[in-house]
Amino acid sequence: MVLQIVRALFVLLMAAAGWFYITAGFWGASTWLTEAVALSVGVLLLCVDIISSRRKLAIFSGIFFGLIVGVSISYALSFVVRLLVEQWMPNDMGPSPTPEQIKMGEMVLSRRASLIDFLNMLVGISTSYLSISFILQTKDDFRFVIPYVEFSKQTKGARQILLDTSVLIDGRINDIARTGILESQLIVPRFVIQELQAIADGSDKLKRNRGRRGLDTVAELKANPRTDVIDYDPSGRHDAKLPVDELLLHVAKDLNARVLTNDLNLNKVAQLRGVDVINLNDLANAMKPIVLPGEKMAVRIVKPGEEPGQGVGYLDDGTMVVVEQARQHLNEEVEFNVTNTRQTTAGKMIFGRIGESGAGAPPPPGMRRPKPRSEMPT
After folding, report:
1. Per-residue pLDDT tens for 224-265?
2. Which CATH superfamily is domain 161-285 in?
3. For a disulfide at 351, which of 53, 236, 286, 340, Cβ 3.0-4.6 Å?
4. Burial class (CB in 10 A: 0-12, 13-18, 19+), 355
5. In terms of Cα–Cα distance, which of 189, 235, 183, 234 is closest to 214?
6. How many Cβ atoms from other residues are within 10 Å of residue 348's Cβ?
């Protein structure tokens, strides 16, 4: 928005400069030539700027610094303009000029002064505009040109959080938001909504359900009075053909925000790019009660494991359990002793061995029971 206002002011200033010098008449009868030149230069520069790619958000600090740079450059170029005009319009009247030569010389001096002022005005407006536009589009990289000059956003309070597609499909962000623990502003980029819509409109039934679940999650977050959710449209600043994960990292860098995701690969790439990431699985794992070796648990075996004799089941929260000597107890609830646990970014795994009570033994009171496979979230 700020950049569009700057562009409009630039065109108006160029038109005003041409109008102001219409009455100068240093090009004879072509009094409207100054207006045509001014508008032509303004429109040309504006078209070049619009065609160039957008990278960053416009901020007032960039406008102020760009204005200073533009005025400084135009002041330095004013000496060059004067020398060029004086060479183009010399005023050599000789040692003893006649009255006609003196009158002609005064006319030349007047026209030359008007031309110098007009060109300096055009140069000043043009350099100021180009400097502001350049800084607004490359402000984060400008520190490489002038060290220690950086237009990074200073955010007070909690930093903003960008929501990834996987987090919205997962849906647990709603449960977290309802607790009131989130004080950060939640940002849902427009391209994430578009990806959810594309998934919801797909031909695969499972994917359609996932896409609709993600859209429902966004609607519930916006309806929650405890959360501040905003839509963000970065169109025009980045290449829309980039993958969604790549666009998400670019927006996170622009806004100095954190990314909330369940995607392990996105987590690794973000760390390489220097983007702060909150992995929802890590958060869930941190909140799980600690399971110690030797503890007895119960689980329903739903499929065979990779090794001979192994059976695999899942706890209520989706934790994968691998039980030795349980392959013959498929679709049965067994009691087992925990032998080892392994926690990764992708989730937690529990390893165990069937206890003395064997298959079908009822678990003791308070022992965690898994949900049936049909009720488990996909």
Report:
1. 888 888 888 877 666 667 888 888 888 888 888 899 988 888
2. 5'-nuclease (3.40.50.1010)
3. 340
4. middle
5. 189
6. 19
